[in-house]
Design brief:
- The chain has 308 residues and is mostly beta strands.
- It folds into 2 domains: 165 residues, no CATH class; 123 residues, no CATH class.
- It is built from 4 helices and 18 strands.
- It has a 9-stranded mixed β-sheet. It has a 5-stranded antiparallel β-sheet with strand order 1-14-13-12-11, with no helix packed on it. The protein has a 4-stranded antiparallel β-sheet with strand order 6-7-8-9, with no helix packed on it.
- β2 and β3 form a beta hairpin.
- The radius of gyration is 21 Å and the shape is elongated.
- The N terminus is likely disordered.
């Protein structure tokens, strides 16, 4: 039996080969999912952007979209001030889907310009098109998300002489429902968006033991057998010329049952993170979520999955 670090390093070199680490197997087969299966519902999307202004000042801006059966909204806050700007975009409650918000954080003047009046949300918490959110810091554009083809957005951009640099450094998505999760992620600023599908199969599908599959662009990149025994683990895959660490923790699915029903309703965590070099050191969830000083090490993508 190989030790964990040796096994981990071997996977980082070639994910298409099997090895003697039998708890999970890197594979390269097509991902087949029945069209009758409906993925879990995405309830929250939280993105952290790093903005660098022309003065050299850095700011971390967090944009959170949330959606439930009765409410839907947006909140924005800076790492320098935890008090967020909140917007309830539920059609029955929200009256103003377009406007501007001004506030002061320390010595910086923030302005948020938004237009969600034509936003299209699809099945998730985050709009897919028909919207924009623009954040300026001291009259310099610090962040723009949404559609840039809108005439009003272009005018707002042109009205500012300086546009800072911004990049997405981490993203968290929350899902609730069954054990099928479907989403998209971009692991590099110049890379493509990749389809990510995570699926846990079980007794109801004729399997003796639960099996976890992670698929990227309809290809199975890992398959974890006997998941109740291998409820935590990590793997390294290649994507867009990058090394991407993948970690899963589904302990609470099996060992933290709901007191009322006795069924496993805990939260599982799946984490992807880009890195450079062949550093074999493992990384922790806390470093991903609290990525202030850790942001230089790469982009992180976290999926929180609650099984009902």
């Amino acid at each position: 039996m190989m030790d964990l670090i040796s096994c981990y390093s071997q996977y980082s070199v070639q994910i298409a080969e099997s090895s003697s680490c039998s708890s999970y197997t890197p594979v390269s087969t097509s991902c087949i999912v029945s069209p009758n299966l409906i993925p879990s519902i995405q309830t929250t999307v939280c993105s952290v952007y790093k903005t660098t202004l022309s003065s050299g000042d850095h700011h971390l801006i967090t944009v959170t979209w949330h959606r439930t059966a009765t409410a839907q909204g947006l909140q924005i806050n800076s790492a320098d001030d935890p008090t967020p700007f909140r917007l309830n975009t539920h059609s029955g409650l929200f009256r103003k889907k377009k406007g501007t918000k001004l506030f002061q954080i320390n010595d910086s003047k923030f302005e948020i310009h938004y237009d969600l009046s034509s936003a299209q949300y699809g099945a998730g918490a985050e709009p897919v098109d028909g919207y924009y959110v623009l954040v300026t810091i001291n009259s310099e554009v610090g962040l723009v998300i949404g559609d840039l083809t809108e005439e009003s957005t272009v005018k707002k951009l042109k009205s500012h002489k300086q546009i800072g640099k911004f990049s997405l450094i981490s993203r968290r998505e929350h899902f609730s429902g069954n054990t099928l999760y479907s989403t998209k992620a971009q692991f590099a600023d110049t890379g493509s968006f990749h389809d990510i599908l995570i699926r846990c199969t079980g007794d109801n599908e004729g399997l003796k033991y639960p099996v976890l599959q992670v698929c990227i662009d309809k290809r199975v990149v890992i398959r974890v057998k006997r998941l109740q025994w291998n409820f935590r683990g990590n793997q390294t895959i290649f994507l867009d010329g990058l090394l991407v660490d993948l970690m899963w923790d589904v302990h609470d699915w099996f060992f933290n049952p709901d007191p009322g029903t006795g069924s496993g309703s805990g939260r599982a965590v799946f984490m992807f993170r880009t890195r450079s070099g062949l550093d074999s050191r493992l990384w922790l969830e806390e470093k991903v979520v609290k990525s202030g000083d850790d942001q230089k090490k790469g982009f992180s993508f976290v999926i929180y999955a609650t099984k009902s």
